[in-house]
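Checklist before submission:
- one chain only
- standard amino acids only
- sequence pasted in full

Submission:
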Amino acid sequence: MTNIEPPSSVQGRSISFGWLVCGGALLGAVLVPTAVFGAVEVYDRLYGACSQGAEGSLACVLRQVMITAMSVPIGAVIGFVMAYRIGSRRRAAS
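Returned file contents:
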């Protein structure tokens, strides 16, 4: 019988530092706004300021959209910094 071994490029493959940082920034740009959207939704439901008729509910929706939109670049920066630190630790360890 012959031993079939996988190619060496597949065997020791790891993600590069640049892809790790870009992926972390993208992940932060998605996860942080999602959490902010949920937190603002819970806040609006608990404190009831958005149940004051059509004008009040429209203002609440617009506020929620704006807060969520403003959290996208902040989430990207947070994801970038976290991925950069993780990647630099990996690079220092190897």
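Reviewer check: Helices lie at 8-11, 17-47, 53-93.
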